[in-house]
Amino acid sequence: MVAYQERVNRIRKLMSESNIDALMLMSEANMRYVSGYSGIALERMISLIISRHDDTVVMIMPKMEEKRAEEVCKLKDIDFLTYTDIEDPINLLEKVLINRRTTVLGVEGTTCFRYILPLLKRFPRIKLFIIDDMLFSLRAIKDEYEIDILKQAAEINNAIMKSAIQSLKPGISEKSFAANIRELAFERGVEDNPFVLIQSGENSALPHQKPTTRIIQDGDIVILDIGIRFNGYFSDITRTVVCGTPSDEHLRVFDIVLKAQQNALRTIKSGMMICEIDDAARKVIELAGYGGYFLHRTGHGIGLEIHEPPYISSQNKRLLRDGMAFTIEPGIYLPDKFGIRIEDNVILIRGQLINLTELPKSIHPEDYLTYS
User: What pLDDT is attached to residue 370?
Assistant: First the structure.
């Protein structure tokens, strides 16, 4: 069971340490973390407010969302304040902040100026405090419930990836292949629209290239990057295979990327600086002469968002802690030729690294046919 009230209590403690009077959440991930509620805001404001001067959490939302919010919200001490399309939600927000003696307001870095600017006009002396680091310090450490959901999400995604690779054949476009994978994902009960990147041939040299109408051909490198959400939590994995027979260069670069990932995974231990993980992967690629073609960090956190802290980068001096879940995904991208990336999801639990991505790491699609 998720201890939502305990999460609120920990947030209030951090608010007190930073002299924050009230904290305003608008992102889906943070509201879900605190309350269990996940809504579709679009242009309408949905906000969750925590005060250190009042035990009751307040949620401001469109009237149409109230019934569902009451059903899914897991907090006991919560008031729902609603508005219609002809009412201004800023009026409700103003009332809440005044009643809670707010002089310092904690906001997310992504909070829309559409809401911040009217607030500043009404509260010209209010001080804003960016709370992203505070919240991520909590969210980065997964509890037992979150770890269990992450394991389930990974199991589903492993099966999707296996089925996708088994079905790979020349003659299909990247877009059509991606659409087929999304259907596989929906059949397995994922939330939302899955994140699917299919990059073939020279497109695979572009790490974030969206699927195109390019037809996958015999002998093409194909990168499959699949992100799915299950019960609010993400799995994000990547495999690279050749549709047909790989070239010597394909095999050589794949081996370098695989060794880089293996070296990073071997390095991981509780208490190390996160940048050391990036260094472990990067030095393998640099020593092989491909350092200039490793275009991104080695990984990122996973949880309620597909990309979240901790970021496995050369600049991250923070310490790795038990409960952190993240990806390890080194890659090499050769312009106008091809790219290769291998991505696993891992969690550090009581000092032991658990790899959730139980799939082969092979450039040959046939190796996935017999895997179970």
Answer: 76
Tokens found for residue 65:
């969302």
pTM exceeds 0.90, yes or no: yes
pLDDT of residue 302: 98
Instruction: Classify the C-alpha dihedral 147-151-156-161 as positive or negative.
Output: positive
Q: CB under 8 Å, gap of 24 or more: what pairs does 261-266 form?
A: 261/328, 261/329, 261/330, 261/342, 261/344, 261/361, 264/298, 264/299, 264/328, 264/330, 265/328, 265/344, 265/346, 265/353, 265/355
Block residue for tokens 């572009």: 206
- CB 116, CB 106: distance < 8 Å: no
Interatomic CA distance for residues 275 and 232, integer angstroms: 28
Q: Sign of torsion, CA 143 146 150 152?
A: positive
pLDDT for position 1: 59
CA-wise closest residue to 242 among 162, 337, 177, 165:
165
For residue range 28-44, what is the model confidence (pLDDT) as tens digits?
A: 999 999 999 987 766 88
Beta bridge partners of 240: 223
CA distances, 251 to each of 159, 245, 282 (Å): 25, 10, 19
Q: Name the amino acid, one letter, at 126.
A: I
Residue 372: what pLDDT?
63
CA–CA dist 342, 77 (Å, integer): 45
Q: Which residues are CB-contacts of 131 (< 8 A; sequence separation ≥ 6)?
A: 20, 23, 106, 107, 108
User: Nearest to residue 191, comparing CAs of 304, 104, 294, 89?
Assistant: 304
**CA torsion 2→308→227→313, rounded to 10°?**
-140
Report, as ranges of residue numbers, the positions in the chain whose pLDDT lies below 50: none
For each of the domains in the chain, give its residue range(s) and CATH number, in order of start. Answer: 4-139 (3.40.350.10), 144-368 (3.90.230.10)
